[in-house]
Amino acid sequence: MTAPTAVLREMRWWDIAPVLELEHDLFPEDAWSAGMFWSELAHARGPRASRRYVVAEIPPDSGSAAGSTGRLVGYAGLAASGDQGDVQTIAAAKDQWGTGLGARLLTELLRAATAFECAEVLLEVRVDNTRAQRLYERFGFEPIGFRRGYYQPGNVDALVMRLTDPARTTTTPATGAAEAAPDTPETTEHPESSDTHG
Questions:
Q1: Cis omega (within 30 of 0) on the bond before 166?
Q2: Which of 56, 124, 156, 161 gives the lowest tally of CB atoms within 10 Å of its CB?
Q3: pTM: predicted TM-score of the whole model, two decimal places
Q4: What average pLDDT does the segment 31-53 reach?
Q5: CA dihedral 44, 49, 51, 52 (to 10 degrees)
Q6: What percent of the chain has pLDDT over 90?
Q7: Smallest Cα–Cα separation from 89: which of 14, 9, 196?
């Protein structure tokens, strides 16, 4: 029997509690606060929206009680300003690593960057997170610099990566293998993250 596939949908305020559970599991030293997610979501709707946040949810079993919700197994967010996008966060539950969920979440963020008319997308990733770096490279991200001591409290450096022309990438990933790329919980920047969510 195959495992159910996670469904991607827009993140809403009622998703903050389950996102925080996953956040604390994946980033125990520097998890985002509820207030940080509320602030991001405040900019995700309306005519002046500058954010796109999505969650990945495994639908409830067909035999479960009416009104039950699925299990949240991932989330991701992008901020846009002018012609630049910035991957703020991307994470997949540990039991979802290797399923392609990270690539699906990143693809959704790049679609959002295209909709926001971003000419480039930036992100930060821990220098010791080679798994996430390989995922980004498959999508065409290239290293452009470092941020020393970016991830606290561990004082871990961040590798800054950039993707130009995200519209091209959403239709043709760099190697054609992006959907099969490995996942990781820490795939982008996070000002207070020990890894790579922003």
A1: no
A2: 156
A3: 0.82
A4: 95
A5: 60
A6: 66
A7: 196
